[in-house]
Model the fold of this input.
Amino acid sequence: MNTWFTELQTHNVSLGLKMEDVLWHEKTPYQELAVLETEAYGRMLVLDGAIQTTASDEFVYHEMIAHVPLLLHSKPRKVAVIGGGDGGAIREILRHPGIEEAHLIEIDEKVMEASKRFFPEIAVGLEDDRAHIHFTDGIAWVKQAKDFDVILVDSTDPVGPAEGLFVPEFYQSIYDALSDGGIMVAQSESPFLEPDIIRRVMDGVSRSFPVTRLYLASVPTYPSGLWSFTLGAKNTLPAPRQVPLKTRYWTPDIQKSCFHLPGFVEELIR
Ligand code: SAM
Done:
């Protein structure tokens, strides 16, 4: 098979990956879902033409969205992930001793079905007794949520059902759903290609949260390869807790260094 998958990342940038097979392709009620086998990165989940995760580099994003905030919270017990139907963030959350409940709020049941079938190593945590799955819109769900220690927004790009996950009202609902000392993190796109989204998320989060910080990680299959996460905290951030974790990207040094931003990123959020 000599066929290439091309993700049009912006109107003038694309990423091409040589495909070996199309394993699943369907239109769900929310989006177009595909699972492709690629030569370079193995299995890949694609939603509406945008790469969500691949078997080879998924660990970077999932470790970084989960461990960085969890280690900055004094005692995380009850955690929620909004989006994230592949299960990767839940898998990482459940590595932390002391987690009692990990809730996943995913709008599209089919994403989880695809993940369980084609990415069992990513979906592994979804069968855990501490995992609670809600197939519903995260925007409505968060309005009734209470007493969460950490909430992660593991969303698609700000179009379609995810649009409302990038607005100040949503961050305020997250603030209200968090207990004292609560922390949120939202994936906030690429500083090279989507600086306006980063500014928008930082601005929106800082309207509700007194502490707002940006951190970065390298995810090769995401647009430009450099990815950002916006963290909002109710209180001043303490030194990270030391917890032995079996990880491939996150390390205790990366926990600290990920907040040291390149000059152009400092500039864009100033
Ligand atoms: N790590 C990925 C990335 O940055 O490309 C995102 C992974 S995850 C697959 C994103 C999920 O968010 C999708 O499965 C999508 O269905 C879900 N989603 C989008 N809008 C949502 C909403 N309003 N409520 C709950 N889930 C939503």
